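DM from R.C. (forwarded with permission)

"hey, sorry to bug you on a friday — could you get me a structure for this? deadline for the figure draft is monday and I only need the backbone to look sensible"
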Amino acid sequence: MSDFLEPGVSRRGLLAGSMATVAVANTPARGATRPAITATEPPMMSVSFTVNGQQHSLSVDTRTTLLDALREHLQLTGTKKGCDHGQCGACTVLVDGQRINACLSLAVMHEGDSITTIEGLGTPERLHPMQAAFVKHDGYQCGYCTPGQICSAVAVLEEIKAGIPSHVQADIAATPGFTSLELRERMSGNICRCGAYSNIADAMAEVAGAKA
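My reply, with the result:
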């Protein structure tokens, strides 16, 4: 850089001059006033949907995700916020029977939808078969990803029954199977940082009535 400086001009002097120029450029002229910054209310919208069999009507900021609506507005904190970028699957819920990442979907997009979270699948007194299988096969460790894993696992078995092919099927026109490879591929969007994948596959295979 020194090769391009004028004689007698140091780097420190050049930087100081640059900062002074920026400061002057951002200083209002004598007698002028800066425009007042006023806070504006966020755009709000009403949305109604059914969550775990109960009807809810909310008024939310249009930028509110379904995940935040469930957690912050309805206090259904079983659905977890992990990466908040749709990469870990911890926020998986069922919307009209299909699994989605709640962190990537806006709440206002779900007018009239039926949403099921982990709280709606079963209760401690009456577990969903998938929940019971996860307990039996130790399909969790820290448990943070478990709600999303279970919701996704329930949806996966329904996808197979509906004939939806997986990426590892040799023949996508063939009837999907409940093989370990297919189950693992379908669950690849749900990350378990504790590494309980084998136990999760065992739990799903039991509910599916197959051997992984």
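R.C.: lifesaver. The beta strands are 44-51, 54-61, 92-95, 98-101, 114-116.
me: no worries. The first helix runs from residue 11 to 25.
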